[in-house]
Amino acid sequence: MKLGFYDSGLGGLSVLREFLREYKADYSYVYFGDSARAPYGNKSKAELKVFIKEILDYMNDKEVDVVISACNTTSMLMHEIDLDPYLFQVINLYDVMNDYFHNSLEASIIRDLHSRLALLATQSTVDSKRYLNWGVEILPIACPDLVPLIESADIDTAKQKWQVYLSKIPEDIRHLIIGCTHFSFVADQPSRFELIDPAKLCLKYFQNTIMGDTLLNHGHKLEKRLELELYFSKSDEKYLRFAESLL
Ligand code: DGL
Fold it and tell me: How far, in Å, is the centroid of ligand 1 from the Cα of 140?
């Protein structure tokens, strides 16, 4: 079975990384990062919908069985995309978070305590207001400068900026949603927050909704070779090396 992942660039690798850790060579993987047009977070809704269609067509050509939209920004628009022409199923991070907030014990505790959560995300995700459906009180914070820094491999500066964003979050907030897949690469530093990472929740969602282990042949004796194809709409040696290091 072939899983296709996509993002505006490197961010979706944080989602792919979770699947590789769990399943290794049990699936084959195709990844597409639209680095030539990153960041997505400042693009119009109309532009993003065109990009989504192009990428889904590309995934169709690659004959994947499931597409994982490893991009929050476009996941917020997936309900406006006609998926009928495609044979594959699509998992998107909006649904992942919606499921988490409505069906997990952890989230029901947060809801019962009426705790406010911070959502650090792109401008487009903040503007979409789709997080209002998740049934919890969310303080959205747009972080427009982080994605370009991460795309240019400047993780140190991105980490410093991340801390500045965190320092502005009001004291009463303890939970933080990593609302952009790029941010997973800078969020792994000590802080006072409990992190809610859609990249990690996406793996659980896949296991619960698609088929999890049922189609896997765990009894195999032969060692399988990992089949992983990484594509970017713009890259050079340095970019590819950085992408591999993130994985
Ligand atoms: N990593 C993507 C997301 O989760 C896109 C970020 C961007 O390109 O602005 O939203």
Answer: 15
